[in-house]
């Protein structure tokens, strides 16, 4: 594939709950999109949606699948594989991305968009921006932060990091998350969530506006309490309401997304999480 053709080609590693609708949206915008899944039976679904399908599986010791070099024959790579739920997640996720990075550097890819999470921030009981440098408390956050640094420090790539808050929307509606649970902790803590539609629009904006070499937070503007949000969510879904323990001092963080809004001139489609219930 010649360089001119590559400028309109995007590869998405991980076409799951977010990656698949993102790929569909990019196809509709006129991009040539290559998408990866880990299971062979999902390849046909990608093909039906106009996405060139690839099977790619990455462990800490190997990358397997069909035609990895062909999958990486793009100008832009979106990495959308969250850390695995395992005790050695910090080591394991770094090892996965280290293997991937070696293959990326053999490819024509020039820009990388890494889907990260606001779990890189500990609960500081304050608003946090991208300048916050306190170490994460969660192992998954430590893994993501280590991978972010690995990618951003590579001088051969222009990497942008997007740290998404809790993902909601469509079949991931929060009514069932805490329904019927008793004495849930931290009910007075403000929540940080973002709708799938906003995620896709923000990623598209980064690509269209060439916002490379950046770190962005991405979270809805308004932060209702856990008690308020999950009680209303359960009620609207017709489920048993959760009850919350009376804790005087909630542990929380409030994610500030002003940077990405200013850089992309973006207004959230779902600025108030209560409005999407």
Number of strands: 12
Structural class: alpha/beta
Q: What does the main sheet amount to?
A: 8 strands, mixed
Strand order of the largest sheet: 4-3-2-1-5-6-8-11
Superfamily at the CATH H level?
Answer: NAD(P)-binding Rossmann-like Domain
The CATH class, by name, is Alpha Beta
CATH topology: Rossmann fold
What general outline do the C-alpha atoms trace?
A: globular
Count of distinct structural domains: 1
Q: What's the N-to-C terminus distance?
A: 45 Å
Q: What is the share of helical residues? A: 25-40%
Average pLDDT taken over every residue: 95
Q: Radius of gyration over alpha carbons?
A: 19 Å
Q: How many helical elements?
A: 9
Question: Strand percentage, roughly?
Answer: 15-25%
Oligomer: single chain
Fold and architecture overview:
The structure is a single chain. By secondary structure, this protein is an alpha/beta fold. The chain has one domain: Rossmann fold (3-Layer(aba) Sandwich), CATH 3.40.50.720. It has nine helices and twelve strands. The longest helix has 16 residues, at 89-104.
